[in-house]
Design brief:
Order of helices and strands: HHEHEHEEHEEEEEEEEEEE
Distance between the termini: 66 Å
Radius of gyration: 20 Å
CATH architecture of the largest domain: Distorted Sandwich
Helix content: 10-25%
Largest sheet: 7 strands, antiparallel
Number of helices: 5
Bound molecules: S-adenosylmethionine
Number of domains: 2
Shape: elongated
CATH topology of the largest domain: Hnrnp arginine n-methyltransferase1
Length: 261
């Protein structure tokens, strides 16, 4: 990129682990007409433009869209549009939609509302990058008192139970933003459960899976009422949130299941 980014987009474009998977996917899949929803600095569009006939790069943030405009001005097949991608009426359909508005479990960014409304502009054999996500949850003992993302090992936490891969979402069809489910989790270590740790893995393509990176889905710790546990205890967990609804939409509750005598 030629010009300075906002600090947020600078961090995004410095996260080489996040970018490597997108670069590989775009190199392999970009063709025809590509929409890049939430283009930010324009980095993913600049790669797509080298393989596609036409790229429409959409960005809601005014200063980011201006930066994208300048960063992409040398490509005569890219159009930058400053608007809300969930409301934009595209004049054609896309062969490929790139949409990196990811957040852990898709809660705090608009991936799902934006893709739900953009799906009508994807050709029947069109593809989406990334193509989906897998969510995992684990019971943890942690110092964390408020819902927070794990960064550089903080808030400190130790896992007390088996990981539960609780959902796999593929982006090619409408996804209900409201999530609500009850799970059983098995404890495998004595301790005090104080929270749930949510980890999201990104399927950039069916073959490129990216775990959390500093700027892509850092694990989310959700506090719970404290529960003393020992090995083989079973916890019943109720978890709900709205994808795109923000962290304030998250509700979590856990109780120990007492086996019948
Ligand atoms: C995680 S950043 C990704 C930026 C860039 N695609 C990249 O990979 O570096 C998500 C971008 O989506 C933009 N965005 C969020 N909601 C949007 C919406 N409804 N319409 C268009 N852009 C949106 C944000 O302003 C932000 O620049």
């Amino acid at each position: 990129m030629k010009l300075g980014n906002t600090p947020y987009h600078h961090n995004l474009t410095s996260d080489s682990e996040r970018l490597a998977g997108f670069f590989e996917a775009i190199q392999e899949k970009a063709k025809g007409t590509v929409f890049d929803l939430g283009t930010g600095s324009g980095i993913l569009s600049s790669w797509a433009a080298q393989y596609a006939d036409r790229v429409v790069a959409v960005e809601i943030n005014r200063s980011a869209s201006k930066i994208a405009q300048r960063n992409l001005e040398d490509f005569n097949n890219v159009e930058v549009v400053h608007t809300d991608a969930s409301e934009y009426q595209f004049s054609t359909k896309a062969d490929v939609i790139i949409c990196e508005m990811l957040d852990t479990a898709l809660i705090d960014e608009e991936q799902i509302p934006v893709l739900n409304s953009a799906l009508k502009y994807l050709k029947e054999d069109g593809i989406i990058i990334p193509c989906g996500i897998i969510n995992c949850l684990e019971p943890v003992e942690s110092t964390c008192e408020h819902i927070s993302y794990e960064e550089d090992g903080f808030p400190e936490n130790s896992v007390l139970g088996e990981p539960l891969f609780y959902s796999r979402l593929m982006f090619g069809k409408h996804i209900e933003p409201k999530f609500k489910q009850r799970f059983m989790i098995k404890i495998n270590r004595k301790g005090i459960v104080t929270g749930l740790k949510l980890t999201t893995f990104t399927l950039i393509t069916e073959k490129i899976i990216c775990g959390p990176t500093p700027m892509l889905n850092p694990p989310l710790i959700i506090p719970l009422k404290k529960l003393k546990v020992v090995e083989n205890d079973l916890l019943e967990v109720n978890l709900s949130y709205e994808m795109g609804g923000g962290l304030e939409s998250v509700r979590a509750r856990a109780e120990k299941i007492h086996p019948k005598p």
